[in-house]
Amino acid sequence: MIFSKDRDPRLITVRRGGTLLDADHRLLAVWAANCAEHVLHFFEQVQPGDDRPRHAIEQAHAWVRGDVSMTQARTAAGHAMGAARDLSGAAREAAYAAGQAAAVAHVAAHELGAAAYAIRAARAAASKAERVEAGRLECQWQRAQLPGEIRELVLDDQRLRNQYCWFVFDC
């Protein structure tokens, strides 16, 4: 569960009654896809023949370009999450990150899910002694990728929803 009961209007598009501009929605989707892609190799090492998470990330980028509909991206998100269900560890978390990234086309607030699952993937791939550091480094890498236009929004969202995201944003 990555959502609080109250939705932040800054993560709801203007046409749906919020304040999020389409350009910023697209930036959130690109950032989320980049977060997921950064850890995708954990999934592909375990399931090299399953392209559902990679396809979801590609659909997120395609949605940003206007090449696919929100529904197509959302469908790919569901398939990526389906790829995660029978797995464990870093592979599972990476597939969930990809699914969350594609779901940003539907609900912008999934951006934090992509980032959180990517951090969990990095932690799961590390030795027990290195898990906290691996998560911290992944979180810092993600923050370094944030476009200036959405940086404060995402950092504030991380602060507000950190408790719903397993406290992975304490980096």
Helices and strands, with pairings:
Layout: H1 22-46, H2 52-65, H3 70-84, H4 89-103, H5 111-125, H6 131-145, H7 148-161
Label this structure with key terms:
171 residues; globular
Provide structural commentary.
- The chain has helices at 22-46, 52-65, 70-84, 89-103, 111-125, 131-145, 148-161.
- By secondary structure, it is mainly α.
- 66% of the residues lie in helices and 0% in strands.
- It is built from 7 helices and no strands.
- The protein has one domain.
- Helix 1 packs antiparallel against helix 2.
- The model has no long low-confidence stretch (mean pLDDT 97).
Number of strands: 0
Roughly what is the average pLDDT, rounded to an integer? 97
Largest sheet: none
Alpha-carbon distance between the two ends: 20 Å
In short:
This protein has 171 residues and is an all-alpha fold. It contains 7 helices and no strands.
